[in-house]
Write a structure and sequence with these properties.
mainly alpha, 72% helix, 10 helices
């Protein structure tokens, strides 16, 4: 059995088509077809992506060496993505709640510190040798683009709105109604547009 046979065997064991596998790895269906028919071989980057997707080792794909029990990936990077996302959500909510209570700049530090910790947890899952790293990365980016950008964008808006209005803009974890409803609405329009466009770019990069 060669690498072409092993890719085909793993794909059929997972119950997916060549097109589905191509979408997951970021290549064309024709590329997968050529791999399985021995017309070409995947490069090293694609070998690594295939091993992550099929939850096996590169040694198995390249040489047919069965993974030992100790080397099997038993945990998922999705756990780290979930934990990191929860920390980021808590950081955002906590910063806003405390701001309404005390209205002090240090609330930003509380929120951003928790978000930094949450992002670090996610990155740990990407660095460690676990499974589902591609899926975990995609989910983290798609969800957390809405969370991680909110406080920085709010601070920038408040300062800029204050500068344009001739007053001191507050460093707050959420946008404040300063000059007018128009500028306030523009912030939300920009925020939603930025996050939606980023999600579309991420989705397109997966194909």
């Amino acid at each position: 059995m060669n690498i072409a046979d092993r890719i085909q065997l793993l794909r059929k064991a997972k119950g997916i088509s060549q097109e589905v596998l191509a979408d997951q790895i970021g290549v064309s269906r024709q590329a997968v077809s050529k791999w399985e028919s021995e017309q070409s071989m995947p490069d090293l980057e694609k070998i690594i992506l295939l091993s992550d997707y099929f939850e096996t080792t590169t040694d198995y794909l390249l040489k047919g060496v069965e993974p030992t029990k100790g080397s099997e990936k038993t945990w998922s990077a999705l756990w780290f993505t979930a934990a990191g996302t929860i920390l980021n959500i808590i950081g955002l909510i906590l910063a806003i709640v405390i701001w309404f209570e005390v209205q002090r700049v240090y609330t930003l530090g509380i929120g951003l510190t928790l978000m930094l910790l949450g992002t670090g947890v996610f990155l740990t899952g990407q660095i460690l040798d676990g499974k589902d790293k591609l899926k975990a990365k995609r989910l983290f980016l798609q969800i957390n683009i809405w969370i991680l950008t909110f406080i920085p964008l709010s601070c920038c808006f408040n300062l800029l709105d204050g500068l344009l209005g001739g007053f001191n803009g507050l460093l707050a974890p959420l946008p404040m109604l300063g000059n007018s409803f128009v500028t306030f609405a523009l912030f939300w329009l920009f925020y939603f547009a930025l996050c939606i466009v980023t999600e579309l770019v991420i989705a397109k990069a997966e194909h």
